[in-house]
UniProtKB/TrEMBL annotation:
Residues covered by region (Disordered): 1-25
Protein name stated in the entry: CoA transferase
Biological source species: Streptomyces koelreuteriae
InterPro entries in the cross-refs: CoA-transferase_III_domain (IPR050483), CoA-Trfase_fam_III (IPR003673), CoA-Trfase_III_dom3_sf (IPR044855), CoA-Trfase_III_dom_1_sf (IPR023606)
GO molecular function terms attached to this record: transferase activity
Length: 410
């Protein structure tokens, strides 16, 4: 199927992304018991790179995100679910029954990796915990994703909003005198999914050299604290407890959004040379020689005066104009885009934005194409592959159970 190269999608043909039919992780099989976002995002990234991911779901309802709509596609499928479940096959197993648990253990016996994000202790109660499964298969890599770890925080539900609040992200997000604000996407789940995929890849590398599997544990709180980088370091090193500053930066100026004649413009001036170029383009080159703004430390100390001056200068034209002339002068600048504009911008830069997946050729009612956001990692020899649209609930149950040694499909 040829991808559409339209004005907003930046679509590319999936045929351009299948060099060898295997990918970097070809031969790796993953039993994915996870649902919602952090786990499914991690396993989708690995599936894009060639891993065979089998998504184990509850009969009848499946992954919670299947019901999280609107918005939905033309078939009524939740776009939330579609965002993190391509390149997977779905099997429904009732883990509350002996038969379902037996089938799950048989499936895991043929897998390299298990991923789960149930509340700590749940998989153990089901007879699918790390110790039991690795006793049967020592080379197994077992990745557990939790909200607050498996210790005293095990009983705390791991919802992204709760972690953004408890983990400090909301304390530094929002206007200085306004309410704490969450990020506009479940950012902690996404970061945790990235950490989970990193841990799994490291464990696979270790197994390649030793033959040994291991337990990989990732939790949302630790992932967020790590991702707070300079803000967390400010506290750890200097005892500084940062607060909300709107779009401003605690250590750099000007590094925030400014109003223009039409819409906001983001300026990310990281050094004195860039500031001098900004002053020149804005029509007041003397700003770079002003003692209040000569160095970054000076600009941070006088950020209020600097913002007033820049707001006045930038109000004479629109954000697109300023973005063009400032970028030409080497000053990092750009308008605040909505998603439509953001995908269009990626297309203008020749970056993959949206890809068209082919219809599933399995002969089921799931034979439908799917539009997806492109994998973000470019590999020259083994690029991401886009082979399967997100599966229907239980779409591959018969196929998968038939392939499990000693088991028959229902």
């Amino acid at each position: 199927m040829a991808g559409r190269d339209d004005q907003r999608g930046g679509c590319v043909s999936t045929q351009d992304n299948r060099p060898d039919g295997r990918g970097a992780l070809g031969g790796v099989r993953i039993a994915d018991f996870s649902r919602v976002l952090a786990g499914p995002y991690a396993t989708m990234l690995l599936a894009d790179l060639g891993a065979d991911v089998v998504k184990i779901e509850r009969p009848g309802t499946g992954d919670d995100t299947r019901a999280w709509r609107p918005p939905a596609d033309h078939d009524g499928t939740s776009t939330y679910y579609l965002s993190v479940n391509r390149n997977k096959r779905s099997v429904t197993l009732d883990l509350a029954t002996d038969t379902g648990r037996e089938q799950a253990r048989a499936l895991v016996a043929e897998c390299d990796v298990v991923v789960e994000n149930f509340r700590p202790g749940t998989m153990e109660r089901l007879g699918l915990g790390h110790d039991e499964l690795r006793a049967r298969r020592p080379e197994l890599i077992y990745c557990s994703i939790s909200g607050f770890g498996s210790g005293p925080g095990a009983s705390i539900p791991g919802y992204d909003l709760l972690v953004q609040a408890a983990g400090g992200l909301m304390s530094v997000t929002g206007e200085a005198h306004g309410e704490p604000v969450k990020a506009g996407v479940a950012l902690v789940d996404v970061i945790t999914g990235l950490h989970a995929s990193l841990g799994i890849l490291a464990a696979l590398r270790h197994r390649d050299t030793t033959g040994e599997g291991q337990l990989v544990e990732v939790n949302l709180l630790s992932s967020l604290l790590s991702a707070m980088v300079n803000q967390a370091s400010a506290f750890a090193v200097a005892g500084v407890v940062p607060g909300r500053m709107g779009n401003a930066h605690p250590s750099i100026a000007p590094y925030e959004t400014f109003p223009t004649a039409d819409r906001p413009l983001a300026l990310a001036v990281g050094n004195d040379k860039q500031f001098a170029a900004l002053a020149e383009v804005a029509g007041e080159p003397g700003l770079a020689l002003d003692d209040r703004f000569r160095t970054n430390a000076d600009r941070v100390a006088h950020r209020t005066e600097l913002k007033e001056i820049l707001t006045r200068l930038l109000s004479t034209d629109g954000a697109d104009h300023w973005s063009a002339v400032l970028l030409a002068a080497g000053v990092p600048a750009g308008p605040v885009n909505n998603l439509d504009e953001a995908f269009g911008f990626a297309h203008e830069l020749g970056l993959p934005g949206i890809v068209d997946l082919p219809a599933d050729a399995s002969g089921t009612e799931g034979d439908r194409p799917s539009r997806q956001v492109a994998h973000p990692v470019a590999l020259s020899a083994t690029p991401a592959r886009y082979l399967l649209p997100p599966p229907l609930l239980g779409q591959h149950t018969e196929e998968i159970l038939r392939g499990i040694s000693g088991h028959e499909a229902p």
